[in-house]
Amino acid sequence: MSAKRSSLFSMSGRLLSGLFLSGAAIATTLSALPIQPGIAQTNPGINIFGGVDSEYRLPYTLRNNQPRSTRASYYLRVPGTRMERAVSHLRITYPEAFTNRSGAFNTDQIEVRRGRGTGDAAIPVQEVVWDPESSQIDIYLAEDIPADTSFVVAMTGIRNPNRFGMHRFNLQAESNGDVLPRYLGTWELLVAEDMGNR
């Protein structure tokens, strides 16, 4: 073997051993770093790779939540802490995938109720308008929801989509005199989860 080739083998051996030692040093350093404890999610649903900030995540309860169920019920809660002003109009927007997968709402079975859980006393509603083309539901109230009041949008008789999906329902609200609706929060719904095909 020539001196030149021997020198090359020697140099590449030193390079490989240097890389190995550097990798071992990095691995040792990383394993010695303290592990930070994780924070558990306190709201229904999962949050992988982003999602809604926790301060805007709204709580909810779903019932009869099977794929294609025509008796699904969504109880979409809004804590009083989100209600800085009285509200006369609610707008809920949802992803097109909900209706593209055969999901549907029954406007005759959409109510607004005071309280928590599934709600208590009904707040009179003047009109509910569902526009599938723009993927939104407008709820016009006969009387304002007062500031600092917890309430529930109770939607029953829903036709669930034909397969599981995570659907973000966004809530906007208007007070008398507002020019534009303001964002109150988002429900991250795990729709058609029971016995769903994932």
Automatic annotation (TrEMBL):
Superkingdom of this entry's organism?
Bacteria
Name it.
DUF2808 domain-containing protein
Taxonomic source organism: Phormidesmis priestleyi Ana
| Organism taxonomic ancestry | Bacteria, Bacillati, Cyanobacteriota, Cyanophyceae, Leptolyngbyales
